[in-house]
Design brief:
With 502 residues, the protein is α/β, with parallel strands linked by helices. The protein has helices spanning 42-49, 72-77, 95-99, 114-127, 143-156, 173-188, 200-206, 229-237, 298-305, 329-335, 344-347, 355-360, 375-389, 405-418, 435-450, 462-468, 491-498; strands at 4-13, 16-26, 31-35, 57-62, 65-67, 80-83, 161-165, 192-196, 209-214, 217-223, 255-265, 273-283, 287-292, 314-319, 322-324, 337-340, 368-369, 372-373, 423-427, 454-458, 471-476, 479-485. The protein has 2 domains: 4-237, P-loop containing nucleotide triphosphate hydrolases (Rossmann fold); 255-336 and 421-498, P-loop containing nucleotide triphosphate hydrolases (Rossmann fold, 3-Layer(aba) Sandwich), CATH 3.40.50.300. The structure holds adenosine-5'-triphosphate and magnesium ion.
Length: 502
């Protein structure tokens, strides 16, 4: 008998049908992957299953009984926990307080048993190989650790079903390996797992069965053993995706950026330097990639170039032949730099603004004629971006938070492309973006480059760098340990350089 039976679920929003008559079953103890393009309805369905969205048509049966959750508390009581795509923690509170939020343990006199909660949180975190203090404020932690805190929270509920909505999209390779081990342990205990991911290798590694959604509709549930990645991709997008071929050599022109002996101090740390003596140059029309493992310094490097690093970097940055020093992102932006960050929730998105304003906010001077902001021009710019990037939205006036995760990412990329920077910095830009949209983004980046933009890109996926880049530099523990041209670069060579130590 199925553990959970999803029956005829429909969810409409003004202008969008997020789910349209979806039915399928979850079996006890299985790992069930749900896949589909950006905006297919995956997160919406999971929010219904976990009580976040209480109003919908259709039914959920739990152990054969109709169940209706009016809030997350109801779903938790029924043994269903969720780790959201956009993490849902209170940044000002400690790890322990987040884990037991709403279920604080009280003593007889109503006092919070803080020590007890901290001990319990410490044990849960240790099980997850997470070495942060239960007292640490969540806002100060890395995304990977924040995610483990969400998992610890689900563990503390003794969840029978654990939903993971793109859990690895913000994790480094080491953290992903750790998460796989955690999932393995949960499955040994008989926990049923619903797993959402855009990474098909992950899906094939973890899932017993795979359900495909397309445009809010159920397409098919397949046994892993009876299918393969190309069948799944085709069912997801309804057409075959050709492998991306970006055409011939790009011809790089004059130098736009030069970095000499850039070092970033690391106060109080044994290594003393997050980045040490980094030198490189970037030409107009060139795509330069940075590869490296967790902690190699890729994000830190881009932050230095964008005036966004916590500590002041040393060394020289020369932009179009002029020595520059950016103390703030605003100054960097003014000079023609743009950064698409890896953590869109914290740094990229303005949750209270609509889609259109999120896109045009950095290029408002362009929408200005004779000193007055031209509304039609602004609207035209926003609509152009939405069309160009294929952002799935009810319109540019829709709330940015109403977009699916991957579509939010596309909107932010659109914002920076409109700002017409001289140098575009992309920090793992296609994280959470579906296969079809990825291919389109690669083509777009390529086109912009051919128009003379200089691009620096990092990625956690090597094939992405190998597809896009003219040259790939490799970082290991804050130092440059390799440089390859497009012709020289292979995954093996890059991995070798990425693990070189002094
Ligand atoms: N609160 C909301 N208001 C309006 N529309 C919404 C809302 N939430 C979701 N939608 C719309 O419903 C559709 C499905 O969104 P959902 O977040 O479920 O997609 P997804 O499959 O999780 O995509 P992704 O892979 O990008 O995360 C999208 O078109 C989205 O814009
Ligand atoms: Mg989603």
């Amino acid at each position: 008998m199925p553990l959970i039976s999803i029956r005829h679920i429909t969810k409409r929003y003004p202008g969008v049908t997020a789910l349209n008559d979806v039915s399928f079953d979850l079996l006890p103890g299985e790992c069930h992957a749900v896949v589909g393009e950006n905006g297919a309805g995956k997160s919406t369905l999971m929010k219904i299953l976990s009580g976040v969205i209480p109003d919908y048509d259709g039914e959920i049966h739990l152990d054969g009984q109709a169940a209706r959750f009016l809030g997350t508390r109801d779903a938790e009581a029924a043994g269903i926990g969720i780790i959201h795509q956009e993490l849902n923690l209170v940044e000002q509170l400690s790890a322990a307080a987040n884990i037991f939020l709403g279920r604080e343990r009280h003593g007889r006199l109503g006092w919070l048993h803080e020590r007890e909660m901290e001990d319990a949180a410490g044990k849960l975190l240790a099980q997850l190989e997470c070495h942060v203090s239960p007292r640490a404020k969540v806002g100060t932690l890395r995304v990977g650790d924040q995610q483990l805190i969400e998992i610890a929270k689900a563990l503390s509920l003794d969840a029978e079903v654990l939903i993971m909505d793109e859990p690895t999209s913000a994790l480094t390779e080491t953290e992903v390996a750790r998460l796989y081990r955690v999932i393995g342990k949960l499955r040994e205990r008989g926990v049923t797992i619903v797993y959402i991911s855009h990474k098909l290798d992950e899906v094939f590694r973890l899932a017993n069965r795979i359900t495909i959604l397309r445009d809010g509709r159920f397409v098919k549930t397949l046994d892993r053993a009876a299918t393969n990645a190309s069948e799944i991709t085709q069912l997801m997008v309804g057409r075959e995706i050709a492998s991306v071929d970006l055409g011939g050599e790009r011809c790089a022109a004059d130098e736009v950026l030069r970095v000499e002996n850039l070092s970033l101090p690391w106060p109080g740390h044994a290594r003393a330097w997050r980045l040490k003596n980094i030198s490189f140059h970037l030409k107009r029309g060139e795509i330069l990639g940075f590869a490296g493992l967790m902690g190699a310094g890729r994000t830190e490097l881009l932050e230095c170039l964008f005036g966004a690093s916590a500590d002041r970097p040393q060394g020289n940055i020369v932009l179009e032949g002029r020595a520059v020093q950016f103390h703030t992102p605003a100054a960097a932006k003014q000079a023609g730099m743009a950064l698409v960050t890896e953590d869109r929730k914290r740094l990229g998105l303005f949750a209270r603004m609509n889609v259109g304003h999120n896109i045009t906010m950095c290029s408002l001077p362009e929408a200005t004629s004779t000193g007055l902001l031209s509304r039609p021009r602004e609207r035209q710019m926003a609509e152009g971006s939405v069309a160009q990037l294929g952002v799935k939205t009810a319109g540019i006036r829709a709330a940015i938070t109403s977009l699916s995760g991957g579509n939010q990412q596309k909107a932010i990329i659109g914002r920076w492309l409109l700002a017409r920077p001289k140098v575009l910095l992309l920090d793992d830009p296609t994280r959470g973006v579906d296969v079809g949209a990825k291919a389109e983004l690669y083509q777009l980046i390529d086109r912009l480059c051919r128009d003379g933009l200089g691009v620096i890109v990092t990625s956690s996926e090597l094939p992405e760098l190998l597809t896009l880049c003219d040259r790939i530099l490799v970082l290991c523990e804050g130092r440059l340990t390799g440089e390859f041209t497009r012709a020289e670069a292979t995954e093996e060579r890059i991995m070798h350089a990425a693990t070189l130590r002094e």
